[in-house]
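Example record

One chain of 150 residues, shown exactly as stored in the release files.
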Amino acid sequence: MLDNVWKPHATVAALIEKDGYFLLVEETCSGRPVFNQPAGHLEDEESMYDAVIREVREETKREFHPQALVGCYRWRNPQKMNTYLRIAFCGSVGDEIPGLTLDSGIIATHWMSYEEIIRHNSLRSPLVLQCINDYKAGKRFPLEFIRDVA
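Predicted structure tokens for this chain:
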């Protein structure tokens, strides 16, 4: 019976903005290139804070410094019929770290303006633009809102 238990995909994402440009990753999804925030699945025994730092490093070759929580989002993918629970952070990054390689499936990273993003018809999901819109609206919550309980 445990196979019938509903389980959302727990993910983290990073909103990284510098001088009006957002850092996005171009990645392959279902055989086509799409744009997304640096994001990925929470791993077992990993804090959400550590997960977002790891995902940004793997997908951009940069060290991420979370500064605030932007929001928690639930989205049901109508094509795959699965649900995602996304925890979105905002923060800053440094320069690329020499010697690191991009995670498999990542084509490239891009700094894009908001106008370029909204004109794009190949965002990975509606979560990408919703997170950016919330960030632009000033949504920020203290990192202390996220708690790991032992």
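Notes: The two ends are 28 Å apart (CA to CA).
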